[in-house]
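Progress report, Aim 2. The chain analyzed during this reporting quarter is listed below.
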Amino acid sequence: MPKWSDFGNIWTTLRELDINAIREEAERPLAIACVGHEAALDALDRLLHSGTSHYPAAANPLEMIPLSQAAGRAAGVSGADLLILAVDARRALTRAEAVAVALQRGMVPLERP
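Predicted structure tokens for the chain:
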């Protein structure tokens, strides 16, 4: 059970917080990479930019990357704060797409005989 004397420790801790570092992190722009099938990316883009709860036109942190271009645009993916994988469930991933997804997630794809 905390005691009243423990409040002194709280104030010491609060004084040591670096408010500027917290402010800089909070003001840093958000980057979201959306990687996937083109049809799924189109649907995701439409959902995120339409309706009453959409991203404002001025602030667009989204980078839409088709799976066919994922390997060549790895810098955009690795610098993102959030990675959204958008796959069209009506079709299977090709071997090249599966390798691109695995590489984006930091995995090493296993070779199969």
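The beta strands are 32-36, 62-66, 82-86. The mean pLDDT is 77. These observations will guide the mutagenesis work planned for the next reporting period.
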